[in-house]
Design goal:
Number of helices: 8
Structural class: alpha/beta
InterPro entries: UspA (IPR006016)
Helix content: 25-40%
Protein name: Universal stress protein family protein
Radius of gyration: 20 Å
Strand content: 15-25%
Pfam family, one: Usp
CATH superfamily of the largest domain: HUPs
Length: 271
Amino acid sequence: MNTILVTTDFSASSRNTLAYACGLFGNEAFTILLLHAYAMPVTYTTEGVALAAMGDAFINAEEQLQEEKQWAVDNFPGVQVRTKAVVATMMDALRDEIEATAPQLILIGALTDYDDLWTWDNDLLSTLQDLDAPVLVVPGHVTYQPLRNIGFACDYKNRNAAQIRFIKWLVEYTGARLHVVHITRGNPHDPKARQENEALMQELLLEVNPDYHNIEDPHVIPAISGFAKDYNLDLLIVIPHRYGIWDTIFKQSHTRRLARLNYLPMLALHD
């Protein structure tokens, strides 16, 4: 059975992300794994105090996880949820779970809007780029609606088979229309190579019959935002290649530009 991993810190944003996961995957084909990671505070100075405090925190986390599970079951009949609490950083917990269960998708709730991404925990920024699994970030105020239009911000380069398989699976599972959008910030350096890469992408995605859009605009995020609104996108797929445009945007000095996309869940696929 496919595993959908949802992280929680028991905040309102995490509850919203759980609701999003239940809405999208609340059927017998999936099990939602609700994961809470508890990192021991560095202020614990003695072994006895640390063990006692950690034990209390762990019991409390287990109780809260059961409450979250019950809420999901009560509100989404048919959903299958299991819970897990671990003593670890969230990144370590996610890496361990990826190795153990190979989740189909990881969902994380954004504690704040994308424009405040630089205030997020560094682990979350790393998650968007480094984990060997697809990661969907759900803004705290975005509630689940059936996916009708999915955008794929594509540079036609550095694709791999796993990315293509996942995109095709998601489109087929949701029945959404896929829009492949390519933004160029000026005349392409090698137009022939771009045309060849675009033709190859069209061949790879032929089964899901996407619409292709090429936009010339020096301002990538405003162009993507305008496109998303024009085509009523419900979700945006990005591939944050190292040293590529999305990698740059996720850095602290650039993330305020992502404010334009605060209304849109963002799915990061990895190289």
